[in-house]
Design a protein that fits this description.
By secondary structure, the chain is mainly alpha-helical. The protein is about 75% helix and about 0% strand. The chain has one domain (about 1-115). Helix 1 (about 1-25) runs parallel beside helix 3. The longest helix is centred in the middle third of the chain and has 28 residues, at about 55-80. Keywords: Membrane, Transmembrane, Transmembrane helix.
């Protein structure tokens, strides 16, 4: 019985560490041209099944949703930029996107640090 508890505790500790690493990868994506965000999204999808039934599942969902919404808004900004006439709106969209991503990373990391799920009412 003790081995099962130890194995489960080790698995949860490993998931916690991985979730911290993924938040760190997202946090530095501005400095790497987005490469670390691509690494984080791939790892997130690969390891997502391992998080089922834990609070880390909600963090993975939070990170994955943050990534895809940021891609959508970045593309919208690119489309606005391509019109030339709407370049100021493109920069505004990208600025809001940067602040929003910063908010998502900080909030998620703080919740992880406190051991709280991102979506307390949902089952993952």
């Amino acid at each position: 019985m003790g081995d099962v508890i130890t194995a489960d505790n080790d698995r949860l500790a490993s998931l916690r560490k991985l979730t911290h690493i993924l938040y760190a990868l997202y946090a530095i994506f501005w400095l790497t041209g987005g490469i670390t965000a691509l690494i984080a999204i791939v790892v997130g999808y690969v390891k997502r099944d391992d998080t089922r039934g834990t609070l880390y599942a909600s963090h993975f969902a939070w990170q994955i949703r943050s990534f895809w919404w940021s891609v959508a808004w970045a593309i919208l900004g690119g489309a606005l930029f391509a019109t030339v006439f709407l370049i100021p709106l493109a920069f505004a969209a990208w600025g809001v996107l940067s602040l929003w991503m910063l908010y998502r990373i900080v909030k998620g990391w703080l919740y992880l640090n406190d051991g709280k799920p991102m979506y307390p009412d949902q089952r993952f």
